[in-house]
Amino acid sequence: MALENRRLLFSLAHPDDESFGYAGTLARYTSQDVDVHLICATNGDVGTVSEELMEGFPSVAALRLWELACAARTLDLSKVHTFGYRDSGMQGSPDNEHPNALAAQDIDEVTRRVTHVIRQVRPQVVVTFDPDGGYGHPDHVAIHHATVRAFHAAGDATRYPEQLEAGLAPYQPQKLYYGTFSRKLMRFLVNIMPLFGADPTRMGRNKDMNYKEIVKNEWPIHARIGVGDYQDVVQQAWDCHASQQFTGGGLLTRVVSHILRSDDTYMRAHPPANGKLRESDLFEGVVFQETEVD
């Protein structure tokens, strides 16, 4: 007999979400021999890509999935589960209405697919975006809602019975986290950005991110994962996504990026947590079942 292996599932939207948002956490746990899986719900079709980077690739989606495979190898992920939906673009864009866009899908169908992965991988811990999707991206919000529903559906034998007939037994993960961050620093930045000639309502690579909207909501932080020792791997994962690199923003952006990369922060959605909870390990409190070893 031996203790069951630790298994961790991140359920995200785009190629690059795993690297730009969570690479430190992923690198930390894979270095500890945790079985780490990733859902990438879209192919990143709508991402802006420099023409010179498209050489040898038939489409933006092909390039971005190739970059994702590079990052997955760098981070030593066990498997990437791709759903193949179309990138929905930023909030309010015509891409939101494309019939293949993630944001346009029936939420129950996306939930079914996330449930399938949960029952297949059997992770003790599941992580997705916070309810705002970090910065309001429709795809982030869509996969958040589908993942929350799937987290609870996976252990229910009455949900998606065709999966049970195919040999996937019900399985209930023990913990659900939302990746989030404190908006306090960002509120300060929003106030001083005009002094540096920056418009906080038109930020990011495509000038389509409104920082004033991002700081309106705040989600509690219950877990702080130290990732300072993994910054070399984080940078290598970032480098895999060359097509999505944003080098603008000047010194202020670089300083903030350095601060945010020292820790990854999470809200614990299940089991519900009080405001005083402080965890340093996503597996804290997980009960491991003894399993037979072949």
Provide structural commentary:
- The protein has about 290 residues and is α/β, with parallel strands linked by helices.
- It folds into two domains: about 1-180 and about 220-285, LmbE-like (Rossmann fold); about 185-215, no CATH class.
- It has nine helices and nine strands.
- The strands form two sheets. It has a seven-stranded mixed sheet with strand order 4-3-2-5-6-8-7, sandwiched between helices.
- Strand 3 (about 35-40), helix 2 (about 60-75) and strand 4 form a beta-alpha-beta unit.
- Helix 2 (about 60-75) packs antiparallel against helix 8 (about 230-240).
- It is globular, with a radius of gyration of 19 Å.
- The termini are close together.
Largest sheet: 7 strands, mixed
Distance between the termini: 9 Å
Output the CATH class name of the largest domain. Answer: Alpha Beta
Return the string of H and E elements.
EEHEHEHEHHEHHEHHEE
Total count of strands: 9
CATH topology of the largest domain: Rossmann fold
The portion of residues forming beta strands comes to 15-25%
| CATH H-level superfamily of the largest domain | LmbE-like
| Overall helicity | 25-40%
CATH-level-2 architecture of the largest domain: 3-Layer(aba) Sandwich
Name the strands of the widest sheet in spatial order. Answer: 4-3-2-5-6-8-7
Structural class label: alpha/beta
* Low-confidence runs of at least 5 consecutive residues: 248-252
Overall mean pLDDT score?
A: 89
- The total of helices stands at 9
Radius of gyration: 19 Å
Q: How many domains make up the coordinates?
A: 2
Shape: globular
